[in-house]
Amino acid sequence: MEPYDVIVNQPVVIDNGSGIIKAGFAGDQIPKCIFPNYMGRPKHVRVMAGALEGDLFVGPKAEEFRGLLNIRYPMEHGIVTDWNDMERIWTYVYSKIGPARFRAPEILFRPHLIGEECEGLHEILMYSIQKSDMDLRKMLYQNIVLSGGSTLFKGFGDRLLSEIKKHVAKDMKIRLIVRYVLSTNVLVLPYTVAFQIQLQVVLIAQE
Which chain positions lie within coiled-coil regions (predicted)? Predict the structure, then answer.
């Protein structure tokens, strides 16, 4: 089975319970892993020589040494109260379900990972800018608006900026504009571009 077959045909399903977390592939009869949904941290720096190695425990390891750990649940009454611990638990989950562990943002930049023969997001962006009028390209590179749910992935902006810099002139100034109000995101770019174009027209007229 190719890696992209797992992504396309077997989505990962995670049941985030306040007490128990279950995870597996869509279509499977039983979950791949089931364990208490909590994080454990040692009560003391050295409780037993060689017994505890590390500062954070999750899954069966946390359950095994529960008596030696301070237990904290990242969810209460179905609501995530500690996103950092919740992310650690999800990382553990993905490490336990084998070769299907993929970071979704990477697919946006390297579609070939799932068998798609198309350009990455950064390439599409640069192609669109290069197709525009030469006088507008500099302004467009300085007004790249990140809009939509996928842009909220941790490190997305840094990765996009890094990829663009690999393909443009070193003296090209690139600016990413991040907007978190999703309901109005789609309006930001048209307003920004329209305003700057209008400003340029006014300045030219005054000359």
Answer: none
- Helix, strand and coil content of the chain, in percent to the nearest 5, comes to 50, 15, 35
Number of domain units in the chain: 2
pLDDT tens digits, 169-207: 888 999 998 765 544 444 444 545 554 544 444 444 444
Domain that holds residue 161: 121-203
A 10 A CB-CB count for 130 gives 12
pLDDT tens digits for range 105-119: 778 888 887 788 889
> Which CATH number goes with the domain that contains 43?
3.30.420.40
Q: Are residues 94 and 49 in the same domain?
A: yes
